[in-house]
Each structure stands twice: as C-alpha cells, then as structure tokens.
Amino acid sequence: MTDTIRPTRTTASRYGGRPTMKDVAARAGVGLKTVSRVVNGEEGVSPDTGRRVQEAITALGFRRNDSARVLRKGRTASVGLVLEDLADPFYAPLSRAVEEVARLHGALLINGSSTEDPAREQELVLALCARRVDGLVIVPAGDDHRYLAPEIAAGVATVFVDRAPGLIESDVVLTDGFAGAREGTAHLIAHGHRRIGFVGDQPHIQTASERLRGYRAAMADAGLPVHEPWITLGPTDPARVTAETWRLLAGPEPVTALFTGNNRVTVTAVRVLAASGRRVALVAFDDFELADLLSPAVTVVAQAPAQLGRTAAELLFRRLEGTEQATQRLTLPTRLLPRGSGELPPQD
Amino acid sequence: MTDTIRPTRTTASRYGGRPTMKDVAARAGVGLKTVSRVVNGEEGVSPDTGRRVQEAITALGFRRNDSARVLRKGRTASVGLVLEDLADPFYAPLSRAVEEVARLHGALLINGSSTEDPAREQELVLALCARRVDGLVIVPAGDDHRYLAPEIAAGVATVFVDRAPGLIESDVVLTDGFAGAREGTAHLIAHGHRRIGFVGDQPHIQTASERLRGYRAAMADAGLPVHEPWITLGPTDPARVTAETWRLLAGPEPVTALFTGNNRVTVTAVRVLAASGRRVALVAFDDFELADLLSPAVTVVAQAPAQLGRTAAELLFRRLEGTEQATQRLTLPTRLLPRGSGELPPQD
DNA sequence: ACCACTGCTGACAACGTTGTCCAGTTACGA
DNA sequence: TCGTAACTGGACAACGTTGTCAGCAGTGGT
C-alpha cells in the first residue's frame, strides 16, 4: 500500500491546513493565475469573477505565502538591523527610527542584538543574508567585515551606523564623537577644571577611542597635562565602573571633574558621585532621560540616535532604489547641553 | 531574435549574481543534491567530495536561500513580535528577552511597533503571518483579535503579553496590575494620605483600567471616598499630563499624593512635582532607570518586563514544540520598592 | 562467479507563487 | 456577415531548495 503517500490533494493540508491559491481557485471555480491577479490587485479581472474570488479567500482564510512570492520575485521587502543591544536606551530610538523608515517603504524590519560580540554579529548578519533581506543596517561590533564582501557584491545594500566598518567599503553614518568629547571636555576646562577624569568604554570600540581622542585634544588645546591614571577604559559593567570612579575620586590629588564616555557609564558614575557626597563636576557623552531632574542636573554632549537611524535607513533605501554613487560617509554633530553638573567649579 | 530571452544559465545571474546550489554543483562537478547534503551537514558524503563542494562554496560565496528552504520545509525559524513602541523603556527589555529566547531556539525575531493603533497592529500581524513566522508574541493594541482565528487554526502559535486578547482564546502572560496598583495606593494611605490623585493612560487600554481598579479598590478598602476630579485618564503626551498634574495640585483641597499609572506619565509628573516645589508623595507604577537617584527617590511598583518577555517566549516555543494543553493565562506579580517619595507624609 | 549488502551519488518532483503566452469570448465597425 | 480588437481567463514554466528513490560502484561471503 503506497496510496497514502504523496496523495494529490485539492484540500489544504500542509502548514497545519493553510489554503493556497490553488485551493482558492478550486473553490471559486477559476484558474490559479486569476486568483493571483485578484490578490495582487492586478487588472484584467471582471468585477464578478473578482467578487467570487474574494469570497473564496475570506471563506478559506487564505493568506498569500510571501516565502514563495520572494522566491519568485527576488525581493523580500525586509531589511535587517544588527546592533549591540536593542534594549539600550541609545539604540532603542535608533532601531525605532529605522523601523519607521522601513515602514514608509513597505518593508519589515528584522533585528538582532550582537551583544558586542563580533562572532555573533557575523552570525546574525549572515543569517539575515540567508533570508535575503534587501538591505542591512549594521552597528558593527567587530572590526573586520570582509565576510560581507560577497553579500554586497550580490546586491545586498549595506549601511553602517555609529561605527565605521573594517576592511571594507560601505556607506556610513557616524556621530562626531571626537568633536563632541572635545567640546565637552573644553567646557569643563572653561569652568576652571585642571584634573579631569575620563571614564570610558573598551578601547577597541571605535566610538570609545574617538571620544578619548577628543578628551585628549581638549586637554592638549588648553596646554594641560593628562595623567594616565585619570583615564579608565574597559567593560561598562557597574562593578568595574563603580570601582574605577571611586579610585579617581581618591588619592591626594583627586580629579575635580569627570567626563563619562557613554550612557551606561554615566548612570553608574552618577550613582557614585551621589554616594560620595562630593561636588565633582560631570559632563556626560550621550543624553539620557531625566538627566535634567537629577541634582545637579547632568550636563551632556547629546547625540541624536533617532536621527542617526533615520539617516542610515534613508541612505539604505536610496541605495535600494538604485542610486549608484560612491559610498558616503555622513557625520552628525553633537550638541552640548549645559544643565548644571558641568558648570560646577573645582573643589579641592 | 528571441535567443536572449530566458537563456538557460549555468552562471549565476539573478539576485545581482547570487550563486545557487546548481552553480556550486556545476563548479564542484557534482550533483545538486550532494551540495544540499554538504550545506546541511547531512551524512553520506565522502570526505573528498565534501571538500570539493566546500571549496566551490567559498569560491563562489554561496549562501543558502532560506526563502526557498522555507517554501520546501514549511518552517521559517522566525517569530514575530508586535508591541506598542520598541523604544519604550518598558518594552525594550521585553523585546530583548524574547529575542534571547528565540536565539536559544535558533530563531530570528521580526518585530514591529503598533504605536497603539489597532489597525496597524492587525496590518503588522498579518504581514508577519504572510511571511509565515512560526509564532507570534503580541502586545495587543486593539481589543478584537478575531482576525487571528484563521492564522491560529493554520498553526501559528500565538502568545499575548501584558494585555489579554479580545474575543479569542490564546495563551496570555500578564502583570498583576490590579494587585500592584492596590498595594501602591495602600502604601500611600498607610503613610497618612487621604486625597490621592491617579494619573493614568487611556481608559480603553486594559492595563490602564486594571491599575485604576486597583487604586479604587485600595481606597475602598480604607473606606476613603474617591473624588472623580482626582482621577485623570488619557493620552500620555507630556502636554496633557503636565496640565492635568498641575490641576491636581491646585484648588482648595489639592491631592497630597499621586499614583502614576505608567512610566511615561511618571517622568512627566516628576517634572511637574519638581517644578512645583511641593512635597507631594508619589508612587509610580513601573520602575525606571535612575528612579533611585532623584530627590526624593521615587517609590515604585515594579514590573519585570524582561521576565514577561521571557515567559511569553518560552510558552511560545513550548507550543511550537507541540504541547497540546489548554491555553494558559499566567500572571506575574509586581514588587513595591519604597525609596522615599512614597513615604512622604501629607502636607496641606 | 554470483549475490547481498553498504555507502555514495544524482535525477526528479514538489513546495506556492508570479510572468509569459496563448486561447476563448464579446463587441464593434466595415 | 466577417474580421479584428479588446478583454478575460488559464496552462505552463520557473524561482532555489529538499525529500524520495533508484542506480552505481565496491566489498565480502558463498
């Protein structure tokens, strides 16, 4: 008995019973292609036939299988976004902005968090390529993106955001972290500070090292020496940052001001400053909610994460629409928002 | 001349030049199926052949087309998440948790923000169904989900989170907003407050009305009257919440304490309280970053958004693995975190 | 020498959709 | 009345992959 194997079926059975166009066609008594025409709103179907087909569609609960459509058409109407951590208050609005632009172009967003791990970044990106996303927006974790070369050659539009790609040519949208950090640090110097601590992220992260460069540049501009112990770089986990911040505040010649390199570092540093009871000035890179309500309110060098995401997504879709110009590198400025903490005078 | 039409091709040409298994097979001098076997790590390929195929794969930069695979296999290894706003500090960790669980199950996450618009929720959900996601996690915006019936019947696993679905049976994971709001309000009453304001979200949102119910229950428990002007419900935009909060603080018998219904409302209310200079007690539903650093630190009824997401995702994958038990309704408890603002005594 | 068996390999169909092309029907002017 | 154009509908192939099955060599036992 083999008659139960591969029976020709007219009733839906796979996908737990998902009807196909064939099923709809059978029910409406029309041809397959006619159903396709109705589903896609193509012309050339009489109103009467159209109505019969529509009825069959609702009766069966038919939904077009986009996988098959993609296979046939070659476009998926979806873009991928890979970033460090979707829940990070800096990246969440960025992601949201990309989603919004994608929606305007009728595309869905698939995203993944790399957790700052280059291997995972690559894994995610390639998984997205396997799904044939039309384009990719990437906040890179690694610094070697040669693995993307075949994909880009195959036509996957790619835009990097917040950090530049490594060993590969591509569109990039960045924030000017160097200028921002320089301005923020200069602000502290202008308020009389000479011993300024820098609490940053891991040095191999581009944005982190750019900001450090800005700090050094501002100090150099003012002719101030930088004592290396004033600088602490590394993972942003609260334990490390707490310990290091305390260290900067201790000793015979403690820092009188802090420049914090990103929002995660900032919240931890703020906690330490509050606990220490010292009036240490603070300028933070990256704005955060309620910064204005702390006492003192926190002076920040604000980035525009949503604008970053929007710009990148728009660039991506411009590429998808066929722009063939050379790859671009856009840089968005930061904005210094004085709120109080950055204007505290030095206290020795 | 029609010989340029539909030429049989051995070299890749579509997708901007993406090689297929056929191309790999040709280059390696083997059959199509053998390439498939190698790509999927199936056994039954001699080491020598396997090596030749691997070389061809890397030489051509081949990447399996998952769309075609999905079409053939019926499973996409992707799940959809629809929520209100990805960038909301409450939903971001929820989303992240779902992503994490999905990753453990080898699935990707596709998400969309409904912006609290039922039509957009439906549009997104159906788009995800058309892509044949294996399952859906939904934070509903609407209150009628009958449109999902055919999808669920067709085998799309569905779990609702944070709010229950309408007119449909499904798994749900909720936070006990009623109990949480009741406890928070009771906390204020225990500290001597009699006139307590409630600043909430739009009343048609389940979580909002549940929390209001909890507030009323606590007042009733204590035998206290509720004056309706103490209650304000509506959109959470800062303008409205600011105006309404000022209103609650005005008049001959102003409230001496506030209960705020969600994190967006809370930050606005905190701003107003700070600006007013009044010592009004505050208990907020939903924890938020830096709540402990404000002065006074904000007492909150904390939810566990990540746990909510994780629980929902785990339930989803249990379904996908074939659990056939009746639909479940899980409720997670809240936790009252006294920090100062909720323990202020009444000041008239 | 033959057979049974095992281990590799490839031909072929099918997944559900869309593009191409052709056939049938109707309407209209010559 | 016929020819022709306009319109409607359907048969068929193709997209790139995987499941089924059959064939082919090599091996070992009789």
Automatic annotation (TrEMBL), chains A, B:
InterPro entries: HTH_LacI, LacI/GalR-like_sensor, Lambda_DNA-bd_dom_sf, Peripla_BP_I. Residues 19-73 form the HTH lacI-type domain. The keyword DNA-binding applies. It comes from the Bacteria. The keyword Transcription applies. Keywords: DNA-binding, Transcription, Transcription regulation. Pfam families: LacI, Peripla_BP_3. PANTHER family: HTH-TYPE TRANSCRIPTIONAL REGULATOR GALS (PTHR30146:SF109), LACI-RELATED TRANSCRIPTIONAL REPRESSOR (PTHR30146). This is LacI family transcriptional regulator. It comes from Streptomyces gossypii.
